[in-house]
């Protein structure tokens, strides 16, 4: 009985799961993007930080990590401020949207893992 | 219309705080999960009992103990959920999973109202067939709400 209930509940949400894109699985870690650049429109906020970046002659949306995690690991808003050179390493969205999720950032001489 | 409400919420000082305070979101997230335990743990057991499982447990003391726990869970979920929502209101208001979750919550609450109207605060034991059906609906609905909630981060 309980099993049937759980199966039914899971089936109810399949359309939602099929549209997923925010977990790491929605990004293609076989296509590593590594870019030295500076970030614009930095949003230092939750649920995760974000920014824009110029990459291959287009504006890409950059997905960072939750603020508390980044700060705990030593990445501050100032380190990714305007005109600050950083190295981003991340992966593009599988669906072709110009969005990259960042695995690690090198800024101010430090490399910070975001996962 | 939901999109317009989302944009309005995102522009409030409350949303500003939910986004920029480094701890508001993770704490609200944690509280949200704990409150979900109160809700599902509480009402889930009562639902199973009404459906006819655990018949050796006396239904009336069980519901008197667990229904208020579940209701407390709902209130805490609404409060913590409003922080999670405010931090990402523009995107969430346009997201199908979040919209589905809102609809399921509305149906689940209507199901609560229907159950109490038809069978009172504490249902007779053994519960009539209709009550058992509504209990099954309750279990399915709240579980689905929880699954939608978790899937919002991946939609």
How much helix is in the residues of chain A? 10-25%
Q: What does the radius of gyration of chain B come to?
A: 17 Å
Radius of gyration of chain A: 17 Å
- Helix coverage percent of residues of chain B? over 70%
Q: What are the low-pLDDT stretches of chain B, counting only 5+ consecutive residues below 50?
A: none
Q: Overall 3D geometry of chain B? A: elongated
Structural class of chain A: alpha+beta
Terminus-to-terminus distance of chain B: 20 Å
Query: Largest interface, counted with CB-CB under 8 A?
Result: A-B, 28 and 29 residues
* CATH homologous superfamily designation of chain A: Nucleic acid-binding proteins
Strand content of chain B: under 5%
Shape of chain A: globular
Uncertain stretches of 5 or more adjacent residues of chain A: 14-21
Description:
The complex is a heterodimer of chains A (115) and B (155). In chain A, strands 1, 2, 3, 4, 5, 6 and 7 form a seven-stranded mixed sheet that branches. Chain A has helices at residues 2-12, 14-18, 67-72, and strands spanning 33-37, 40-43, 50-55, 58-63, 86-92, 99-107, 110-113. Chain A is built from three helices and seven strands, in the order ααββββαβββ. Chain A has a single domain (22-113), classed as OB fold (Dihydrolipoamide Acetyltransferase, E2P), CATH 2.40.50.140. Chain A is α+β, with helices and mostly antiparallel strands. Chain B is mainly alpha-helical. Helix content of chain B is 81%, strand content 0%. The radius of gyration of chain B is 17 Å and the shape is elongated. The mean pLDDT of chain B is 96. The chains are: A alpha+beta (115), B mainly alpha (155). At the A-B interface, helix 1, helix 2 and helix 3 of A face helix 2, helix 3, helix 6 and helix 7 of B.
